[in-house]
Amino acid sequence: MNKIIEIPFSIPFYTQRVTEESWEADGFLDFQEGLSWDSRGCGIASLRMVVDGFLQQEGKPSCEGQGAMIHKGLLQEAYKPGVGWIHQGLAKMAEEYGLLAIAHREKNALDIVAEISAGKPCIISVSPRFAGGKPDENGKPYEMGGHLVVAYGCEVDNEGNPVAFLVHHPSCFLDCNWPAHRVSIKEFEASFSGNYIVFQKAEN
């Protein structure tokens, strides 16, 4: 019988989507600025989810809104134009909130299982909508990576091999915002770039 493993605290779901109703509360300068980051905000949305999961566990106030965090990340050069949010930069941003974050490369699904089993959430690099290998609107197959989501749980078989992962998948599209989404190992392995950031509470 398969076993579900989750980190021992809840992680909230946040979207990267910006609307006329949300931009001001999110901390953007205006709606147009918010729209300009609408499709590029997955890294910050994911970081906010993880940070607030740790903060809420301790009864502390939430971190900043999407726009305010993007401004902070830009000042820290955590975003590289034409590339996206830099894993090392996002890890560095987490330090301000009392977290230790480490960016890893060239890893596999078992590595993510090990992190989750140790109670550590991960921001993982995957294809948008876990569509790795599937054709996009132009008929070109989606490559691995390109989008950041939060992995907080997994389903394993009797031998400890991953069957599926539980993730929060943010999006700029309303119907692609998937909190508590179960992704099969087949879709995961077709979409996972091998890169992730793992988070834990920093030791004093």
Number of strands: 9
CATH architecture: Alpha-Beta Complex
Please state the CA-atom Rg, rounded to the nearest Å. 16 Å
Task: Find the CATH topology.
Answer: Cathepsin B, Chain A
The overall number of domains is 1
User: What is the overall pLDDT average?
Assistant: 96
The low-confidence parts are none
Helix content: 25-40%
Shape: globular
H and E string: EHHHHEEHEHEEEEHE
Helix count from the secondary structure assignment? 7
The CATH fourth-level homologous superfamily: Cysteine proteinases
Largest sheet, in brief, is: 7 strands, antiparallel
Instruction: Assess the beta-strand content as a share of residues.
Output: 15-25%
Structural class: alpha+beta
Provide a brief overview of the structure.
It is built from seven helices and nine strands. The chain has helices at residues 23-26, 31-37, 42-57, 66-75, 87-94, 109-117, 185-191, and strands at 3-6, 79-80, 84-85, 99-104, 122-126, 147-156, 162-169, 178-184, 196-201. The mean pLDDT is 96.
Report on this model:
This protein has about 200 residues and is of the alpha+beta class. Helices cover about 30% and strands about 25% of the residues. The strands form two sheets. Strands 1, 4, 5, 6, 7, 8 and 9 form a seven-stranded antiparallel beta sheet that branches. The longest helix is centred in the N-terminal third of the chain and has 16 residues.
Characteristic terms for this protein:
204 residues, Cathepsin B, Chain A, 7-stranded antiparallel β-sheet, 7 helices
